Amino acid sequence: MSSDITERAAQAVAHHSEGRLSEAEEAYREVLAERPDYPAVLHNLGVLLASSDRLNEAIVEFNKAVDFDPDYEPALSSGAKALQQVGRYEEAAKAYAQVIVIDPEHYGAQLALGKLWLRLGRRDRAMDFFARTMDLRRGENRAGTPDKPLTATTRAKLLHDIDQFRYLATQKRDSERVYSLARAYEFAMKRIDWPDDDNLAVDLSSEQLALFGESYNYPNFIADAAELSGGTVNPQIAVSEVLQAFQTSTPGIAWFDDLLTPEALARLQRYLLNSTIWFDFSHIGGFLAAYLEDGLACPLLLQIADDIRAKFPEILGEHPLTQAWAFKGLAGDKPIDTHADDATVSLNFWVTPNSANLSPERGGLDIYTMPPPDDWAVKDYDQDKDAIRRFLDEQGDQKITIPYGENRAVLFDSRLFHGSDAPNFAIGYENHRINITMLFGTR
Q1: Which of 83, 228, 344, 363 could bridge 404 with an S-S bond, Cβ 3.0-4.6 Å?
Q2: Exposed, middle or buried: residue 75 (CB in 10 Å: 0-12, 13-18, 19+)?
Q3: Is the distance from CB of 302 to CB of 123 less than 8 angstroms?
Q4: Strands across the sheet with 365-368, in order?
């Protein structure tokens, strides 16, 4: 390849990176007029077109790049994403599968395939990929640069893990092994210089990490959470009343009790109590979180999502599950600040027994009834706080407060700002307030 072509391609990239898109596109096309078999330039042109919402044109360029170099992973990945954005989901799945053939440890492709198979109604296939994402992040086949929850911790997080091990020791036959983990964590805690704030993260040295014996934030125990043959959602739910509330009485908001059957609720509670999947402490201070791709996905939970969609077709029928998480409050009085979800419809439900709630009329969810402007973009839990507060002050804090209830569900428009209502829960491992959030559809 001539140095002139290489220099011109580099100049096109410079235009692109500095936001001069029309100049960049012209420069890319001039290079391709002379060298149509230049995969990197074809890919860069495709990226430019995709960023300008010219997705179908972008797909053409990505495909050309792959035609010239079938193993050119950037074009395969970008093409798969573009196919997904235009709704060509099965083609996108095939493209992501090609990425994994080239790079079996490609975390993004594994995650995308898990979510795509959910969209395509194949939760069995989705589980395969969510199991793989957890393995790549937490398991024996960890790949890439470790994230913060693998190289840091908080005092509150370790105290939780010790409590969980001691709880598990009462449930398992190999109790001595579990007790030994608890003792190892207690020993390690004494060798960490802790800040005054129990929720402030501390970076761990290699020597400190070694004290955990490779068990820290590892899926040491995963409980069984198989699907239920009889379904998971309570057949007695008054669907028409829920629909009336969501569409008319309290537009965009509906809540009701007894979401899950007793068997489904008990099985889900066991999974959340007995599985060491509470890895993330960095998202919201004072909380641990579990995500689909990071241990929360199990056959039962994915079945619950499908059963809920089938129960409320008028609200959720067109919106596949796009993400789910569980938040566990480590401090009994710690709220989740006001935020919005990046989805079409959100479902929140609680699983901790009512006996743990010391203020029965509180501890649930505040939902503000005034939606933000249509162009409001969800950024980040912390970044959004000030802007949300200003908006709500201007609107007079119009809200609905839904008290906490075990197995109580809330369906709401994901654009609506919401947050915890002053929780007051008892201390102790089994009393941690746990909420499940499921996001359906995209904005």
Answers
A1: 363
A2: buried
A3: yes
A4: 399-402, 365-368, 418-420
Partners of residue 321 on adjacent β-strands: 440
Which residue reads 């911790």 in tokens? 153
pLDDT, tens digit, for every residue of 184-242?
Answer: 999 999 999 999 999 999 999 999 999 998 999 999 999 999 999 999 999 999 999 99
Q: Which residue in 76, 73, 74 sits closest to 93, CA to CA?
A: 76
CA dihedral 354→358→361→363, nearest 10 degrees, is -80
The tokens for 196 are: 């005054």
Instruction: Answer yes or no: pTM beyond 0.85.
Output: yes
Q: How many helices (H) and strands (E) does the chain have?
A: 17, 11
Helices (H), 374-417: 385-395
The sign of the CA dihedral 367, 370, 374, 376 is negative
Helix axes 123-138, 107-119, angle to 10 degrees: 160
CA pair distance 300, 326, nearest whole angstrom: 14
Distance CA 304, CA 297 (A): 11
Backbone dihedral angles phi then psi of residue 442, each to the nearest 5 degrees = -130, 160
Position 220, amino acid:
N
Q: In the chain, what are the domains?
A: 3-103 (1.25.40.10), 148-210 (no CATH), 239-440 (2.60.120.620)
Measured CA to CA, the distance from residue 248 to residue 14 in angstroms comes to 53
User: What 3-state class would DSSP assign to 100?
Assistant: helix
